[in-house]
Write a structure and sequence with these properties.
Length: 504
């Protein structure tokens, strides 16, 4: 089916529910990066996200009989609110399927529009499959979150507004990517009006669905996706959105959690708005692109796709921001276990600001110190610190990019295990719901022992858990089977340097 997207975007009926959002000049970011940077403020929509555009355009175009049949959608967040708002506006009966792990604030945000909410499954994929099944069973129209021409066209109105708002032709656009509805709708329209502009999609490193699909030259399903950037945590790009993106999107930039957190802070300092992680992706990608390619004096537009941030997650964001900005160095340093050695080490660090200091007695010969050091110029300060430590003959490990260190070690008191136990270490993502730990324990071999356990709530649908397991004399195949049956996202960290320094 050939679709005239330019015509569809121009005729989209989104403004019954959506706002024509402003382009905000980011003064601090512009000055810092020597470019003129504007932020398209989709965080100012009634549901604090662009998702109401595509949802309303799709639902408003349903036939009378389709509207009478009712609609259904699966979502853990912004799409759910967009569908709920649209259904309320058009007086259509709607059912929203959300995972059982969805935070209550998001459930309440959907229910306030008067729609029905069904909690089902531990993940979006399970909720999605249930919604499709219910759609067929009850004859409801399924409202896809991104892979639908009318949804794509509705999202494309973001680009239409930008064209109407700009007097000088923009050079570069940065757009967050999940399922691809926003970037595909925008890229078609932008390339029509600015054929020489560059359009970059931005994805989280642990959810590179468009990046992977472009690399493989076909839509590709990811085995796992990280959930910190929950608004873009999509395992597979849409068929239609991929077809459009491969033609109109110039490239995809991948950013880390730390870089995303730093971008949240950047947006806040310029606008006093606390963006959600997905909303900050574009700024994170922009910063990375500018620094990697020495870009100057360009007119740049980035999209803030939303501001539905769980308040509980702020702690995690602030903790990771320092590293994302290159302003904190995490080290494991071995010091002699003798009188005065602790003081001597502090003298070596000098007057540098210490963000963290953890120490525990290990043995009579030496001890490992976990230290966080503030940095102003990451590259220069890091080189200087390393030089000083090497000159003083200190044995040290850089843990700045070590996920176990950032998520767990810094909150744990060290202690080494009996060398005779056969301990395996894993980082898990547990569903944030009652029974997740019990399910884990029930699937373990009865004669295995938990030797280490650390969990902190980060305000997301999944809890980050560090677990040590003594498997004794069991075959490694038993461990593989356990992990497969458990079906929790995991990373083995048995050889992790931070673990071996402080806990092994």
């Amino acid at each position: 089916m050939n679709i005239n997207y330019i015509k569809e975007i121009n005729n989209s009926r989104v403004y019954d529910v959506a706002e024509n959002t402003p382009l905000s000049l980011l003064n601090k970011i512009s000055l810092k990066y020597n470019n003129t940077v504007y932020l398209k403020r989709e965080d100012l929509q009634p549901i604090f996200s662009f998702k109401c555009r595509g949802a309303y355009n799709k639902i408003s175009n349903l036939t009378i009989s389709e509207k009478a049949s009712g609609i259904i959608a699966a979502s853990a967040g912004n799409h759910a609110q967009g569908v709920a708002l649209s259904a309320s506006k058009l007086n259509i009966e709607a059912l929203i399927v959300m995972p059982t792990t969805t935070p209550s604030i998001k459930i309440d945000s959907v229910k306030k529009f008067g729609v029905k909410v069904k909690l089902y499954g531990d993940s979006f994929d399970e909720a999605y499959e249930y919604a499709l099944m219910t759609s067929k069973k009850e004859g409801r129209v399924f409202i896809h979150p991104f892979d639908d021409p009318l949804v794509i066209s509705g999202q494309g109105t973001v680009a239409k507004e930008i064209v109407e708002q700009t007097k000088v032709t923009p050079d570069i656009f940065f757009v967050p990517v999940g399922g691809g509805g926003l970037i595909s709708g925008m890229s078609i329209y932008l390339k029509e009006h600015y054929p020489n502009c560059k359009i970059y999609g931005v994805e989280s490193e642990d959810a590179p669905t468009l990046y992977t699909s472009l690399k493989n030259k076909k839509p590709t399903s990811l085995e796992q996706v990280g959930l910190f950037v929950d608004g873009c945590a999509v395992k597979r790009i849409g068929e239609e959105t991929f077809k459009i993106s491969k033609e109109y999107v110039d490239d995809v930039i991948l950013v880390s959690i730390d870089e995303t957190c730093a971008a949240i802070k950047d947006i806040y300092e310029d606008t006093r708005v606390m963006s959600e992680p997905a909303g900050a992706l574009a700024i994170a990608g922009m910063k990375k692109f500018i620094l990697s390619n020495d870009v100057n004096n360009k007119k740049i537009i980035a999209i803030n796709s939303g501001a539905n941030l769980n308040f509980d997650r702020l702690r995690h964001v602030t903790e990771r921001t320092e590293i994302g900005e290159g302003k904190e160095l995490l080290l494991s340093v071995k010091i002699p276990e003798k009188s005065g050695s602790f003081r001597a080490f502090c003298e070596v660090i000098g007057k540098r600001s210490i963000s963290e200091f953890n120490y525990r007695y290990a043995n009579e010969k030496s001890a490992n110190v976990f230290v966080g050091i503030k940095t102003d110029d990451k590259e220069k300060d890091t080189q200087n610190i390393f030089k000083v430590l090497n000159n003083k003959k200190y044995d040290f490990i850089d843990l700045t990019m070590n996920e176990v260190a950032k998520l767990h070690l810094r909150y744990m008191v060290g202690g080494h295990v009996n060398s005779k136990i056969n301990e395996k270490l894993f980082r898990f993502e547990f569903p944030e719901k009652p029974g997740a730990l019990l399910n884990f324990l029930n699937k373990m071999q009865k004669d295995w022992d938990i030797t280490l356990f650390h969990y902190r709530n980060h305000g997301s649908a999944f809890g980050r858990v560090l677990v040590g397991i003594d498997i004794g004399n069991h075959n490694e195949n038993d461990l593989v089977k356990f992990l497969k049956d458990l079906d929790y996202k995991y990373t083995e960290e048995t050889e992790n340097e931070g673990y071996r320094s402080f806990l092994k």
